Each structure stands twice: as structure tokens, then as C-alpha cells.
Amino acid sequence: MTRLLIYEPSFRRIEAQLAAYGDRLEPVLANPDGALSFRGAPVEVDAAAPDAVWLNADVFQSPASRAFMIATLKAPALKWVQSAAAGFDHPVFAQLIAKGAKLTTSHGQAIGMAEYVLAGVLDCFQNGPARRAAQARGEWLRPMCREIMGSSWLIVGFGAIGQAVAQRAGAFGAAIVGVRRDLAPHPLAQAIAGMDALPGLLPAADVVVLCLPLGPATRHLADAGFFAAMKAGSVLVNVGRGGLVDESALIAALDRGAPGHAVLDVFETEPLPADNPFWRHPRVSLTAHASGITGGQNRRNETLFLDNLARFLAGAPLLNQVDPKDVLAG
User: How many helices (H) and strands (E) does the chain have?
Assistant: First the structure.
């Protein structure tokens, strides 16, 4: 018997699939108001005691998130947590790993994030800001634009998200260099390199995309030295974590023109304070950590959860399981 903690609206969407497990699965429901219920009766967070938890985007963004996380952290025999997030730098994940739970992450947002990256770079290459300003002025402006065809892309973090970016940029004719720990060749990249090769790769890159996890080794990876090595007029895109970038150094680098533009979806402080200079910088396009929020994300996350649930109940290896050493190192 496995007791599963799940957000009630999420449970309703997949209730039929879960019912197929019969009495092998006992759902503990977290209602939108934060109250928990088990077998139709209210249950206190201390008594929820789940063996498995689906920590998805629905509950992240609901008033139930606090009670949900308390029940998760207090579970005496927690064995598995499926997260809807791609990253695992939040301190709560280290706490769950320390309890002995397996942690699996999701790449359901990879498609949306990759499309976001392409949209941001295309808008920059196509002089979108200048064209929109000219339209607002009623000015017949015909600026010279850049092509992705023949451009060089350096994708730092070549996992599911980086590969999704490479697939789309490559379809436009970009040359791709992927940066990751595993140096084996990959069909979506012309070359694969390690992190130690970054200083020599940055000067040739027209586009640099950051989509790697945040940890002690990657915090402020993009610092003053990193920007000094970038090509004038290049584009920096950060869809990883805000802490990957030394933001003060980036402001100074943008003012010098290398990079020439930054597309930023993540920041060291979120929400981004209203007085932060990124809001009004002419060489910055920014969004509110929303690059992966698309209509297909929930469907892909549900498919992954159901697949991993079947594996968990069968005692089979889980998909996207995080190495505990990577979590605890953060």
C-alpha cells in the first residue's frame, strides 16, 4: 500500500488512471484551501504520512502549498517525490533527499522554454524593439536585421532544455556548441565541450544560452571575466537560474556592448524589485520566470508522473532521478 500526497484539482484530472491501481494506492488530497483529507475525512498535516508526493505546478502556485510542504517534510517514511521543476537548487529538495527520499524532476517545460529562447533571439536579431518603436511613432523604418542562419550558438547546460533549444536553433541553420559534463558527441551539436573550455568558446559565440542548474560550481558563472570574453553585439539568454549571473557585472557589460543584448527570464531576487535597472535597460528583454509556462506543460508533467508512479509501484528505475550528491552539494 502506497500513500500518495497529491493536490486535489490535479487528482481529479487523473483520477481514472489512479483508480486502476485499486487498493495499492491511497491518495491524501490537499484541497485548494490547504486542508488535507484521507479516505474522505479531514487529516492533520502531521498525520498525512505520505510515502510518495507529486509536487506539481498546481500546488506550487496555490494557497495549499504551505500545508502540502509541511506534510511532505514531516512524512516519517517518505520514499519518492516527483517535482514539476527542472531544477533542484531550492533548499527544500536537500531536506527531502536527507530524509532518504528519491527525487525525480521534470522536463515538461523544455519545449516552452526552448521556444521562448528562439522567440527572444529572433526578436533581437529582427530589431523588434526598434520596429515597434517606429510603428508607435508612425515612422517608415527599414532597419538591417541579422539572420540565425550561420550564427554560432553556445548552449551552456546541454540537458533536456539545452537540447530542445539546439533542435530549434539548428533548424534555422545555427551552428551549435553544447557545454556539459558528458563530453560524448551529440547529434544536435556540431561540438560538445566541458565547462573548462568556456573562456575559449565565448569570443566566437553570437548567442550564449544559460540553461544549467545552479550550484556552488555555477553560481555567478557569468561574471565580469565571462562577459569580457563575449563578442560585441552577441546575445545572452538566461533561462536557468538568476544566480548563474553576476547581475552588476552584466549591467556594466551591457553598457559596453558585449553582450549587445540580454534576454532574461530569471533573477537573483524574484519578483524582480521595481527599482532594478534591468526593467528599463534598453538592451534587456525580461520576463517574470515564465518561459516554461505553456499549455502543454501540465500534460507532459502528468504523463511523466503517471509513468514514474507505475515504475515506483513496480520497483523499477525512475525517470529523471536526481543524483543525491548533486542536491546535497548545493
Answer: 14, 14
